[in-house]
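Form 7-S
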Amino acid sequence: MLQRFRNGWSLVKASGSVLAQDKELLLFPVLSGLAVVAVSASFFGVGLLTGLQEAFEGGDVAFDGIGTVVGILYYMVLYTVIFFFNAALVGAAMIRLNGGDPTVADGFRIATDKIGPIIGYAALAASVGMLVRAISERSQWLGRMVAGLIGTAWTLSTFLVVPILVTKDVDPWTAVKESATLFKQTWGEQVAGNASIGLVFLPVYLLVFILGIVGIAAAASVSPILAVAIGCSMVGAILFVALINSALSTVYQAALYQFATTGEVPMGFDSRTISEAFVSKR
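Output:
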């Protein structure tokens, strides 16, 4: 555990050193988060206005098929937004890793050029997501276990799909197959590395949460308004930490893809960090 934390801290510092040179790239995860909220609110609002949500949750057979279509559409739009901004950040990060000086416009240009494959991949991911959800919700414990395994396998095997789509002119299914192949060749590096970064941020999340709860409890006896203000501040702080975590993980994703495909140490990452975090099986 201690070694994984050290590796995670090394990855955080290396990814942070890359991101520190282009702080404006944090705009991508910010816009992604705002867009996700907007998309979710829009679909939720439509569901309330049409009564579809109540009918679907109540088991109305007539609305079951419509609900499935709407669910796939929701996931597709949601994933398109997420993958678009991820592609923008990955593309910009790879410019920096290769010694260039990326701008926000570069990121948007790269993602826009790949909008077709991004939408295709979003449709594929949405279909898999709905399938996993259907198996989980309509099956007993064995079905839920199978759904969990399918979901985990999909997440791991598609970890490098976005960098592949950014750097190559391939269709989404080819990108998925290539990502799965790279995962097998570098078995566990992306899992261990991403988990290690999360491990570094875990105590930060806990600290913010504990301080927030203590602050709310202390403020409640003084002023309800103050307690609400502290609660909002805690949520904002957690979202900020999540923003940094997401951005660093995406930079790491770009670095891993570069190392996995070329064997070259990405700029900003030293050889020791690479040897400890990205030991290839090849």
